[in-house]
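Example record for the data management plan.
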Amino acid sequence: MARSRLPPGPPLGRIGTVRALQRDPIGLLERAASFGDVSSLRTPGSPAFVLNHPDLVRDVLVSDHRSFRKGPTMEAARRVLGDGLLTSEGEPHRRRRRLIQPMFQPARLDGYVPVIVALADRAGERWRAGEPIDVHAEMSRLTLAIVVATLFGSDLSEDDARTVSSALREVLSQYPRVFSPLLSVTERLPLRSNRRFERATAALDRTVYRLIERRRAAGADGDDLLSRLIRAHDEDGSMTASQVRDEAITLFLAGHETTSNALSWAWLLLSRHRDAAERLRDEADAATVRPRDAAAVVERLSFAGAVLDESMRRYPPAWAIGRRAREPYAADGYELPRGSVTIVSPWLLHHDPRW
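Corresponding structural encoding:
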């Protein structure tokens, strides 16, 4: 039977919680987790709840997923990503997944490996022993080149790529505003940040819609993901230009920002664990990667896979996931009210000494 009282949590008021989320969100989640596997945060509107046990997280994301919808961050992301696979729900989500899933079959993905290897080789050729580099800038540059090549093919100019990348960075920089209790007011004001956001969104739309029109006019018969999105269809027909736009920008974001962050943390950890760095170098040196067998060779780089797994355990790019309860929900004896936000955090689970 669910308890009527709220679970314990940090003794902060609503404004204090918002400020802590903006200043040090992971620190606030760690404070909340110290109160137990279910804890509460006082936020504007209704309280938020942090669930910090693998069984509870599995229930929210898998077993009882129909009791929840996507949380505030995804709601805000719709302003840029539209109703793509990442932000849509229900039947629209199922249809998008049905259309897009064939593009990510292993055989299809293997076809991109030679391009990725070639771009990685080209990036490494710019580096010189003993010269310091900005690793995050280099990883961002590399993942941008990869996502441009695999998503847009050869149809995207350097200027267009820079436009899309800088626009997405501007959009991402404004995500902390999602947690502001004044967002519904401030987003209507003539603020400089609002104007930057609107310009960034307009630049994304102009570039991507132009590419869609150009690709459709040419027959969309290429192997790049944009062409495949345009060709995708089911019994209800193919996707509209706006639906293709939403999926293209979603894939661009997913393939660029989070991947460059994950790689940057991996380099940092390797710099602190030289024995692992040497073992990784030895494995890479022993692998001869030719275009025809690139995918098979990469699959055999077991230590490289282990390095990335451990790096993403330590520093998960998606360090918190929010869900909003569709109905009252019982978790470990507490009742979470309808409409409340539930937070699960890979960061907390991956650093919990119990696991």
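Summary line stored alongside the record: Residues 241-272 form the longest helix (32 residues).
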